[in-house]
Protein: Dipeptide/oligopeptide ABC transporter ATP-binding protein
Amino acid sequence: MTALLKVSNLVTEFGTGKGQPGLRVVNDVSLTVARGKVLGLVGESGSGKSVTGFSIMRLLEKPGRIAGGQIVFDGTDIVNCSDEEMRQLRGKRIAMVFQDPTMTLNPVLTIGTQMVEAVQAHEKMSRHAARQRSRDALGLVGIPSPEERLSAYPHQFSGGMRQRVAIAIALLHKPDLIIADEPTTALDVTIQSQIISEFQKLTEEANTAVIWITHDLAIVSRLADDVAVMYAGRLVETGPVAKVLTDPYHPYTAGLIASVPSQNKRGEALRQIRGMTPAINRLPQGCSFRTRCDRATNACRVMPGLMPADDRSFRCIHPVMRGLHDACD
Structure:
């Protein structure tokens, strides 16, 4: 299947401003997303998931910069696109739902004004028609009385309602690619389910590709076709979601799955990965996970590359699956 988005060896750095090398927050990340498919990008806070999304959108603020790699969207390497070319792509063909809706909404403009302007920025359409499309988009994400709500200001909405508005704005043009950064975290379970259903319809009916950034493996198992697991700025495992979540190869992936409450028995202490994610400027030598890994040996002091295994890949010389362990020795 032809990829709509192909990210190859992406490196994103944040400069220290002291003449020192920049800190690599995203390090040698490669992703592929096809039309109509959902890629789940998972990992703990600080793993580099959101920065990967911002890099693809070319929305990094200084001192952040893309220091290497390619981001090929529909045949064009957008790393080399001008600011004007990116403005034409954002919103129309590539949209992002931010974790914080205040990054999307202007507090001094009504919701209707912002949505109508978003429509008319990319399509020649009357204000009346743009307002109707905006009203329908609000209805899709479960906002009651959408016609009346168009005249309201962001401060008149709850946090969850503002997030629904931000999602509605991303859906206005039915873009080719949506990057959703923890889009349902602030929503209740009922609305969360409704939003997920809308994204599923988009992928099926509009052939939209989605990168869903989250720490919630339950959502990934329901929504995603493939999953990429990040740790300390690097991918540690990728593959079909059904295979990765039922038979993980990397110890970090296995730890994430084991820490889900539903995987634990009632009355027993919740299992968790010991320790904390290291700061990006104090990563251990070699495998970044080795100081938290029960399988680590001295050999892990050298960073392994991504190892292919059929339709999957993993970054570990001591994988969880015994058959792979033997094959790698």
